[in-house]
């Protein structure tokens, strides 16, 4: 007979109720024979005389802090410390990522025009557009994981023309992209600040690890492209040729 069973007479053995199993604490049953385990902390014990059910202190704490929602529209996974402010901020960031994606998609359409014919730029901005959309999806997945509700908002109609008399369309679009990437970084920092103010360490970790680092890389990559095309003289008298060469480089 196990040590655990020695400790309890047959009559005083705890009654395991459905409540315990639903709370997920039932897993602790497998630990009942270990030396450290305090059975009375997790078990509901029915009083032999009164028949009343006395819940273990851990069960009381778990079910009062995290009651199982009765409303099916409410997330089962959501913890009370995942605040509405952070949920709203994540939805705002999803919208920003979609807006940036939409602008890059518009650039893709512009550079694909037969009278522009810069396929390297077109493919570059198509890739960038998909990347921003993947960021939106990453945030949607995280929102869902935490028990928040994804609330998609309207997307602004994007700019359609990217010609620029002095700089040419290539340099102008890349400079615009650089500004957008920097703005996106600012917005991610704001989101991180909100997560921090909500005391949500997990959200801070997600934003730092999955988004902020990549955003820094994107700003650097865009800055280097602007620097290269400027050095090639895109904003000078032979700007058209510089843009055409850069387009060929983007295709490689
Ligand atoms: Fe992004
Ligand atoms: Fe980006």
TrEMBL record:
Gene Ontology terms, MF aspect: ferric iron binding; ferrous iron binding; ferroxidase activity
Class of enzymatic activity (EC top level): oxidoreductase
Keyword Chloroplast part of the UniProt annotation: no
Main location (coarse class): cytoplasm
GO cellular component: cytoplasmic vesicle
One example of a Gene Ontology biological process annotation: intracellular iron ion homeostasis
Domain Ferritin-like diiron: 80-233
Key words of the record: Cytoplasm, Cytoplasmic vesicle, Iron, Iron storage, Metal-binding, Oxidoreductase
The reaction(s) this protein catalyses: 4 Fe(2+) + O2 + 4 H(+) = 4 Fe(3+) + 2 H2O
E.C. numbers: 1.16.3.1
InterPro entries xref list: Ferritin, Ferritin-like, Ferritin-like_diiron, Ferritin-like_SF, Ferritin_DPS_dom
Keyword field contains Cytoplasm: yes
Top-rank lineage group of the source organism: Eukaryota
Subcellular location: Cytoplasmic vesicle
PANTHER family: FERRITIN
Family statement drawn from the similarity comment of this UniProt entry: Belongs to the ferritin family.
Subunit structure: Oligomer of 24 subunits. There are two types of subunits: L (light) chain and H (heavy) chain. The major chain can be light or heavy, depending on the species and tissue type. The functional molecule forms a roughly spherical shell with a diameter of 12 nm and contains a central cavity into which the insoluble mineral iron core is deposited.
Protein name as annotated: Ferritin
Provenance organism: Bathycoccus prasinos
Lineage of source species: Eukaryota, Viridiplantae, Chlorophyta, Mamiellophyceae, Mamiellales
């Amino acid at each position: 007979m196990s040590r655990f069973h020695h400790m309890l007479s047959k009559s005083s053995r705890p009654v395991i109720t459905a409540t315990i199993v639903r709370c997920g604490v039932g897993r602790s049953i497998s630990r009942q024979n270990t030396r450290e385990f305090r059975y009375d902390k997790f078990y509901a014990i029915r009083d032999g005389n009164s028949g009343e059910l006395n819940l273990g202190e851990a069960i009381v704490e778990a079910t009062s802090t995290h009651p199982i929602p009765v409303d099916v529209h409410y997330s089962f996974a959501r913890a009370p410390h995942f605040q509405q402010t952070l949920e709203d901020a994540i939805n705002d960031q999803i919208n920003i990522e979609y807006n940036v994606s939409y602008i890059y998609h518009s650039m893709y359409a512009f550079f694909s025009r037969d009278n522009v014919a810069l396929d390297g730029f077109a493919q570059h901005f198509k890739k960038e557009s998909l990347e921003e959309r993947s960021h939106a999806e990453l945030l949607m997945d995280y929102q869902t994981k935490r028990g928040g509700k994804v609330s998609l908002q309207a997307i602004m109609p994007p700019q359609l023309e990217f010609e620029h008399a002095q700089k040419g369309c290539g340099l102008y679009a890349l400079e615009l992209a650089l500004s957008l990437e920097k703005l996106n970084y600012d917005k991610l920092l704001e989101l991180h600040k909100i997560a921090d103010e909500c005391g949500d360490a997990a959200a801070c970790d997600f934003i730092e690890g999955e988004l902020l680092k990549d955003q820094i890389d994107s700003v650097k990559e865009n800055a280097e492209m602007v620097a290269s095309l400027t050095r090639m003289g895109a904003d000078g008298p032979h700007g058209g040729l510089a843009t055409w060469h850069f387009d060929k480089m983007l295709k490689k």
